[in-house]
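Example record

One chain of 70 residues, shown exactly as stored in the release files.
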Amino acid sequence: MQEVVIKDEFIKLGQVLKLAGLVDSGVEAKIVIQDGKVKVNGAVETQRGKKIVNNDKVSYNGNTFVVKQG
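Predicted structure tokens for this chain:
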């Protein structure tokens, strides 16, 4: 499983999708999140501003990664 390392205590869902390279822009992130295509820890998440913290698992479009605070 891929890891995405963040420096802060949390990152917003839309931002972590961009950081992981799964979307090209904030607009694209907003659309896929609102359409219910993104899961956080196995549950569909529709809030772009959802705080993603250490050890959260994010899935989108067949890709899953875990967020690590570093």
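Notes: The first strand starts at residue 2 and ends at 6.
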